[in-house]
Amino acid sequence: MNSFSVMDRTDDAETVKEIDAAVERLGAAKAEVDRIIFGQGDVVERSLIAVLCGGHALLVGVPGLAKTKLVSTLGTVLGLDDRRIQFTPDLMPSDILGAEVLEQAASGERAFRFIKGPVFAQLLMADEINRASPRTQSALLQAMQEGFVTVAGTPHALPTPFHVLATQNPLEQEGTYPLPEAQLDRFLMQIDVVYPHRDAERRILLDTTGVEDATPAAILTREELMSFQTLVRRIPVGEAVVDAILDLIRSARPEDNEDMADKIAWGPGPRAGQALMLAVRARAMLTGRLAPSRDDVTALAEPILQHRMALTYTARADGHTVKGIIAELAGRL
């Protein structure tokens, strides 16, 4: 039985079969994550979308909302080698990337040997990334964009796939350092983690305070995940969806939208459009469709754009928010 509720036109029957099989496997992976993480369905879906796109995600929320547990669970379920870095004010770039050490052999010969840092993982969790200084935060910049790091002038390739899922405390809390705009733009999306609803919180109280705690099982393999990432890029996108993406991205720039010139200080660049193009494809595949729709663009507008925009002082003083502006722009599509 085909798992698609709506069959869009496609000329590639083999791609249809591949997507159908991928939907079943991804559904099993999402169900396993949902078994461990209660009441965060949207967060789980968006995290999976980010990974399917081959990108990085920024999880924002107050402490205690299972952000750390979500990332470790994803690592296990998706079959990825995962590591965790706890960002603190005294963390140094070498603590992330690694360093060269001088070793002396029994013969007396000396040579430098590179000791890899925790960044050499397929799924890296940067926990409370905005607790560290901007210098240390920037140590991830090249890794996130280029897939390698350079230490002492020598490049070192990172594992494949390579994903950074960073958690961030709200900037209003003490001891936080805002991430530079250039690094924020490297995150495919920002995922806001909110408080669970009452029924989910009741389940948390009952299921996580007993003698045994649920542990996730591996559902996918690294090879499967990488094949799904390639498949996402093969999903066709209709002209109407492409136009919707362009309309949304360009309307969020003050230079291209006179109505918003007094509200938006700076808007998203072309990388935002690339991220949205991939994300709508991944969302379509994750929900069992052969092609994305304009509804996918609307649904993903906020997580893709909110960390790539800033409002003017006047707009903030008048009570406008980035989320509100995005919702207004998306409502015009």
From TrEMBL:
Superkingdom per UniProt: Bacteria
Keywords carried by this UniProt record: ATP-binding, Nucleotide-binding
GO molecular function, one term: ATP binding
InterPro entries registered for this protein in UniProt: AAA+_ATPase, ATPase_AAA-3, CbbQ/NirQ/NorQ/GpvN, ChlI/MoxR_AAA_lid, P-loop_NTPase
Domain AAA+ ATPase per the UniProt entry, residue ranges: 53-197
Transmembrane segments: none
Coiled-coil stretches noted in the UniProt entry, renumbered to this chain: none
Family statement drawn from the similarity comment of this UniProt entry: Belongs to the MoxR family.
Protein name: MoxR family ATPase
The species this protein was found in: Acuticoccus mangrovi
